[in-house]
Design goal:
alpha+beta; Aminopeptidase; six-stranded mixed beta sheet; 7 helices; 22% strand; globular
């Protein structure tokens, strides 16, 4: 449903409210443009034959409170309850388009360069991790509404995927944000690689008093199949 896509995009933005990399991106590009990117990504994951999006809802009113997108490589994808591909509401698309059509400034250019560097590092890792086995599933993205965090929502979403991996004899991997690593560690993922950058090297500041972002680390974790 279109409303599901928009709701999940809202959750991503709010869940990463204290994440330095996310906030630096939002500051440069605008909140609505960032949220639109999340919604577009969600559409792609839902449409892909090699991924599935699990959502958690509040039993009281069926409001979505969290989600996890899982990718499958060499493992049959479980049947989805809903094979439809949601589309964005036109009003929201137009609102976000106003942000993305604005002239690119130096901040956006530098963020694009950072994204290129981090994406290359991720692709290099994916090439290496394929050597570990032909069966693997991975967490594409996960977020829980801050109001429902620490209530087992994220754990249930991750357990669904790791259970599938265990039954298929596959290992799991994740590319973790800085703040998310301890969560994955608790669920059996072990760090096998990392990328640390100084975000201020990629930021453009108008004055010395402007907020500094500091160092930021992405971690790569692998969970072996529990046989």
């Amino acid at each position: 449903m279109p409303s599901d896509v928009l709701r999940i995009a809202e959750i991503v933005v709010s869940a990463f409210d204290n994440d330095a990399h996310t906030q630096m991106t939002i500051e440069a590009r605008g909140r609505s443009a960032y949220q639109n990117d999340m919604a577009q990504g969600m559409q792609g994951w839902m449409a892909s034959p090699r991924s599935i999006v699990m959502k958690a809802t509040d039993d009281r009113d069926q409001t979505i409170v969290g989600f996890c997108a899982w990718g499958f490589d060499g493992v049959p994808i479980p049947d989805s309850e809903d094979g439809s591909t949601p589309q964005l509401d036109s009003e929201t698309s137009e609102e976000a388009a106003e942000d993305t059509q604005a002239p690119k400034n130096e901040c956006v250019k530098r963020l694009a360069e950072l994204e290129t560097a981090t994406t290359k590092h991720l692709l290099d890792f994916m090439t290496k991790v394929k050597a570990n086995g032909s069966k693997r599933i991975y967490i594409i993205s996960i977020a829980v509404d801050p109001r429902f965090q620490d209530q087992g929502v994220g754990s249930s979403l991750v357990k669904w995927g790791t259970d599938v991996a265990d039954k298929a004899g596959a290992f799991s991997w994740v590319h973790s944000s800085e703040g998310g690593w301890r969560f994955y560690e608790k669920h059996g993922f072990e760090e096998v690689d990392r990328l640390t950058v100084d975000l201020d090297d990629w930021a453009v500041r108008s004055s010395e008093k402007q907020k500094r972002w500091g160092e930021y680390t992405w971690r790569y974790g692998v969970r072996e199949c529990a046989v």
